[in-house]
Amino acid sequence: MPINANAILKRLQDQTICDRSYLEASFTTHGEAARAANESDEAAAHPIMDKFITDIGSEGIRKLTNFTVTEFETLWSFVDTAMQSALMEVRGRRSPTSPKDAIFIALTVLKHFSSWEKHAADYGFKAPTFEKLIMRVLSSLVPDLGEQAALHRGSWACLVDMGYIGISHSLRGIHPKRRPAHGSLDASELERNANVSSDWVIVENFFGRVCSVWRVSCATYTWSERNYSAIQRVTFALTNFHLSLLSLRHDDEDFYGRVLARYQRMANEKKRKRQETQRRYRLNRQEHAAMDAVRVMRL
């Protein structure tokens, strides 16, 4: 069949005119209602966080998340794009929870760390749905872009000293770079070495801050083991942001000492219970042996 260019052009132009006429008619009859609905959606874009701000104010938000409303907005500006792409489309449909509400809820979960069921009940979710939401938030926040991430995928970095140079062939070891024979390090390498060395000094203070502001980092971990790495990477990243607001202090090192003491207490308690179980087992065996001996004597 020969192509009729004029007929095709006329049909498409007529279709364009019909479409525009339909849009104009719709705007005339339903424009105000659509505008009101859109403004209503914008006003309630973050209903969960907005309600908390209204009810408990900025100081209450700080107690829930470790950040005031202003600090939260700064944090949000860093993760806005990643969160929008992660949550706006879920299985081909829009997530009912806004990205900002989702990260607000995730911060409260990391700070206060309880069971999924308790946290889900606080926000009106079913536990499985709530867990999926939080883990989607955490997995979208911190892609691992650190040193040797491509070489050792899924591995945590180990901060080691000069004695472990070459460890990166088998482990993800981060260490100062050695000066090459008959050569010298450039400015960027010297700066990196200084940064690595300074990490040794602040590591205990940093872990103290992590444990003090995120309960999930120091409490007995009871969630799925496969989620542990993603959760802890997020708490470290959030702590880095927290340090930009409040620098490390001696109190952080003291808190870390208390955390280590708690772990030691737990280990001692576990050892005591095991010794008590073994003692009772030995006593029971002795009693059974004595009873068997009495029966033999009677026979």
> Can you count the helices?
9
Strand proportion, as a percent range, falls in under 5%
Q: Which structural class do you get from the secondary structure elements?
A: mainly alpha
Q: What is the alpha-carbon Rg in Å?
A: 30 Å
Oligomer: single chain
Order of helices and strands: HHHHHHEEHHH
For the structure shown, list the relevant keywords:
single chain, 299 residues, mainly alpha, two-stranded parallel sheet, 1% strand
List strands and helices in order, with pairings.
Layout: H1 5-43, H2 47-65, H3 69-87, H4 99-112, H5 116-123, H6 127-141, E1 158-159, E2 173-174, H7 187-213, H8 228-245, H9 250-298
Parallel strand pairs: 1-2
Helix pairs in contact: 2-4, 3-4, 3-6, 4-6, 5-6, 7-9
Keywords: Coiled coil, Metal-binding
GO molecular function: metal ion binding
Domain DDE Tnp4: 151-240
Polypeptide structure, described:
- The chain is mainly α and 299 residues long.
- The chain has a domain of 43 residues.
- The chain is built from nine helices and two strands, in the order ααααααββααα.
- The longest helix is centred in the C-terminal third of the chain and has 49 residues.
- The mean pLDDT is 82.
Characterize this entry briefly.
With 299 residues, the protein is mostly helical.
